[in-house]
Fold this protein.
Amino acid sequence: MKKFSISLSLVLTLLITLSCDNDDSSSEFTGNEVRLEMIPGTVQGNTTTGTLLIRERSNGQAQIEISLNNVLTNADHPVHLHVGSLDDDGDVVLLLERLTEQNGIGRSVTILDALEDNTTLNYSSFLNFNGSVKVHFEDSGPLENEVLGAVNIGINTSGNQAYLDGLKSITICNSDFGN
């Protein structure tokens, strides 16, 4: 009986240790994160809703995760980081990972390192960035500058509420890269 209880104790200790060792997510992220509600664009009766989640990785980088509900089946949309707020319609400074439909939800996950001009952009600097993120309907064509969803980020986040309350609306968007 004593051997059985020692063996059982050893097995339980081993299982607890292994289950803790398999949790890589705790070491991948610091726990610092900001969640923002996406503002629906007005393209062709758009009804998308969703969130943009900014997570700090353990190395200080920012991971941007966008989820949009009510996207078209097999959707594939470009996502841009713009300089300036949604009011400014600023130039694109970085292409984020494309938003693609997976099980009825549009998803995009980007790990930020630097802007197109090689300016470093980590979690802390992203939270203080003068910018906005926009999901465009298409890369080129008549709906190129139409927006499915957008959000002010960094120093501009206080401007989101007017859009969410319907006091302002997003109609079109600049797809040009800044110099």
Q: What stands out?
A: The radius of gyration is 21 Å. The CA atoms of residues 26 and 170 lie 37 Å apart.
